[in-house]
Amino acid sequence: MATQTLTKPKQDQSVEQKLQRLRxxxxxxxxxxxxxxxxxxxxxxxxxxxxxxxxxxxxxxARQGKVSELTVFLPFVKGGAxxxxxxxxxxxxxxxxADAVGTVHDMRFVFVDNDTKLLFATAYDGDFDxxxxxxxxxxxxxxxxxxxxxxxxxxxxxxxxAADWIAKHQIAAEAWYVNSPNLTAAETxxxxxxxxxxxxxxxxxx
Amino acid sequence: MATQTLSRPEQDxxVEQTLQQLRxxxxxxxxxxxxxxDSALPALMAxxxxxxxxxxxxxxxIxIRLGRVSELTVIAPFAPGGARRLRAILRLLHGxxxxxxxxxxxxxxxxxxxDNDTKFLFATAYDGQWDxxxxxxxxxxxxxxxxxxxxFEGWPGIRSPKVKNWIVEHQVSAEGWYVAxxxxxxxxxxxxxxxxxxxxxxxxxxGT
Lengths: 206, 208
Fold this sequence. Notes:
Chain A is of the alpha+beta class. Chain A has helices spanning 8-11, 15-25, 31-39, 41-49, 80-91, 96-101, 128-138, 140-147, 159-169, 185-205, and strands spanning 55-56, 62-64, 67-75, 104-112, 117-125, 175-178. In chain A, helix 2 (15-25) packs across helix 4.
């Protein structure tokens, strides 16, 4: 999208200005926080001097390098929590459908607020809209099976409405860190294959 | 786990049972969801048959793990002024968390402000078991931890013996957890990246 850096003006502040701002902010922090700021200052100076790495994932969400985050809180319909819990238990951690999409790094399903809401959080490759379109094209049934348990879900056969519905419940992360920001899921698979091939080669060489 | 070596017929039977249970669960679901269940059935059968080999397990004290990668999800109330402080520091850092890289077992982490800045969600993917992970943070980046987590109600400080209890109290274990590469730790990913680069260099020299 046009504005890839979230807070451009902030970047123009000098490191000294930023440190000053931090000291002000932490003036009324709990003791633990104030002490930590003092001890951690040299590390922080490096971080503050580095070029900004926070990008957006398009319509909504944060991205670092090639990897984005999506975080939603979805309200259950009556009976939805029970159904989804049963569904997840029966799957026993198998989400081959996600493998089929090929751009998912990880995803978690967390029941919150007395089973009235689900927190769904995922790490994926690229931008929000193509990601949702990919799900709609590749695994619409699997999506309907778990998302039918939430209020107002329009169904994956209506991908535009489904994407709007997800975006409406999404809360963009204020900060997002990825250890290997330039590794897409596809690139990781390629590296795994190369690693195996190299080991085989070395075995043959003796 | 103990049930990893189910015999074939036994496995087929449990697949059939699983599908029965699913149909029951979805009996009062919307029509389109029931239709989805029917069309998704073949894939689900294959999945159910495989499920014995890639089951998520406990990450130790709390949280779940798939292969070598675990999840930690914490939702905690902000201390007075905490939200304002944390937002400002996160914006100043602008995505730079070299301290996270220092820990060496951290795949990713997100910071999400909830409910009008009254609560906070911290979610991370990491390697191995809960206790060593927390201890790692305490030894490798104690100050960074305190700068961030002192924004929350009751944070006892990373050096406090009470810190693990505080985290457990606010952690909500996931009930579903998927990792695309469950066998890849952060360290192993680093090794593969180096191998990939070396192979590229090698091929360049050979002149392909």
